[in-house]
Amino acid sequence: MTDQTPIAGRSAYHFEVMRRAIVLVDELGPGARLDDLAREMQMSPAHFQRVFSEWAGVSPKRYQQYLTLGHAKALLRERFTTLEAAHASGLSGTGRLHDLFMRWEAMSPGDFAKGGAGLNITWGMADSPFGPALLMATDRGICGIAFTAEAGEAAAFEDLRSRWPDARYTEDAARIMPKAEAIFGQGGEVPLHFIGAPFQIKVWEALMQVPSGHVTTYSEIAAAIGHPKAVRAVGTAVGRNPISLLIPCHRALRKSGALGGYHWGLPVKRAILAWESVRADA
Predict the structure, then answer these.
(1) What gap in Å lies between CA 205 and CA 11, rounded to an integer?
(2) Among the options 201, 206, 230, 249, which is catalytic?
(3) Rounded-to-integer distance, Cα 209 and Cα 57, Å
(4) Catalytic annotation present for 249
(5) What is the reported pLDDT for 96?
(6) How far apart, in whole angstroms, are the C-alpha atoms of residue 208 and residue 108?
């Protein structure tokens, strides 16, 4: 019998398994056996292995090394991206999701200062490889992506809405779904509409130079935008990135190798970094 579950439903189920597995790997340690993990997940070893491998692309045993906190330090050693060199080498297009093409434009500083007045923002929920996602878009393109597995849908909506409080918001899943399919199906074109302060937009531009499967640091971003001493301000701007995944704030780490924060929860950041690393290694 073939699995008739819609792809979106399977993806949401897989990420929930992944999220619980991340917690278990932390609790049981990197030496946890497949049988131990499956038992704690209340699944048979064979079923757990199948579900896990469908999402991750590798076995649970192989994936555990990507989920350890030490993986972030390994990324800094082996896949650290110097943003100046990345830009000079034309790498700005390699941080995309496979064949996804993005073009973007930014709101003017004056319009941003109006708090979104005059903007019509359409929103809707969609499934993603990293759990439920809230997407927002203007007529120019995607302006917000939030992952709600940790924060919850209502809190995520209020978080994004508070950035542009005077905009008009309309729920319209039919208009959002084609954009979600292009983003999470990893194909097609997705225009982006940056709505932020000028300094924030410079930081977000720098983040888009970091290739998938690679990482950089907050201090490297600060240097790349011409403000080497503004590391703390850069960290704040990274945290205020409204377009998760496509503007890859998850690829910014501390110089020590610590993950730093992630607006939508560290389990989501770890899952994204691990997911990208598996595909880079492949």
Answers:
(1) 29
(2) 249
(3) 26
(4) yes
(5) 43
(6) 19
* Residues 6 or more apart in contact with residue 58 via CB below 8 angstroms: 278
**Distance from the Cα of residue 189 to its chain's centroid:** 18
Which of 201, 178, 200, 203 lies closest to 191, judged by CA?
A: 178
The pTM score is: 0.81
User: For residue 100, what are its two tokens?
Assistant: 């996804």
pLDDT, block means (10 residues), the chain with 282 residues: 36 75 74 85 89 81 68 62 48 45 79 89 93 94 94 95 95 94 81 92 90 86 92 94 94 78 86 82 72
Question: Which residues have C-beta within 8 Å of that of residue 63, sequence separation ≥ 6?
Answer: 52, 56, 274, 278
Q: Could you give the CA distance from residue 153 to residue 131 in angstroms, rounded to a whole number?
A: 11
pLDDT value of residue 62: 77
Crossing angle (nearest 10°) for helices 198-207 and 231-239: 80
Under a CB-based contact definition with an 8 Å cutoff, are residues 130 and 14 in contact? no
Alpha-carbon span 11 to 98, nearest angstrom: 18
* 149 token code pair: 């597995």
What's phi and psi for 17, nearest 5 deg?
-60, -45
Kindly calculate the radius of gyration of the chain based on its CA atoms and give it in whole angstroms: 19
Distance CA 96, CA 251 (A): 12
Burial of 281 (0-12, 13-18, 19+ CB in 10 A): exposed
Cβ contact 246:282 at 8 Å: no
